[in-house]
């Protein structure tokens, strides 16, 4: 875990959760950058800037960045901000809740965010900028591709392979050994019991494929 002060990009609900985790981990938050004024007592003592260009006020050698914009089905805004941060030479802090269970035999890419109650078991490989939301279970030997989002309460069973840019909805269950192709969306509470091609949307419990 880095000791460098952190600049948060984003000031909504996801940012409040990440701020809470950073405080639990005793990590210093230097400032928050958000075009929308952040609400909530959790931000009350953090200096706020309102323009992404203000990031240049902080040295890339002395500060690290957390992209605190919550993932959406259309994640282009979040990805564009990540690209901007990379192009300016900054590195990303992983935000790992102390109330998550993360095996020392798992692998985490840069910019990973793991929220309270999540379980990451041995052999799991979590790609860059993946968000593992509250109470998610990633079982042994799973692969979660970069920029994917696993929503609250989802369960990815052993040996499943989730490609890049996949959104898995709240409460969904992916059975062992299943492969989910890139840019796919799995609906809330869906049961994924067969491989899913790339660019596919699966609705509901054993729902229709689009």
TrEMBL record:
Which residues are listed under the site Increases basicity of active site His?
141
At the top of the EC hierarchy, this enzyme's class is transferase
Q: What is its EC number?
A: 2.3.1.89
- What does the entry list as the binding residues for substrate? 70
User: What is the protein named?
Assistant: 2,3,4,5-tetrahydropyridine-2,6-dicarboxylate N-acetyltransferase
Q: Which domain of life is it from?
A: Bacteria
Q: Which family does it belong to?
A: Belongs to the transferase hexapeptide repeat family.
